[in-house]
Amino acid sequence: MQLTTLEKRRLRGDLVETYEIVTNKENIDSAQFFGFTDTGHDLKGHTLKLSQSRNISRVRRMFFSQRVVSDWNRLPQ
Question: Which of 2, 13, 19, 68 is surrounded by the most beta carbons within 10 Å?
């Protein structure tokens, strides 16, 4: 039937939610969830790169604000 997998649908939903939070389309302070990369104007990819913190616990890695960062940063502008 060529349906999209549940994993891909969840990832898409996470990325849509991230976009809405980062661009202030949701009534949520983006600083509560994400830190922006502050490397200057020479960023590869796009201007809304998020910084990824080191996670010691496995539980913390599965939080929304952590699991979406690497996929978000791989997106094109």
Answer: 68
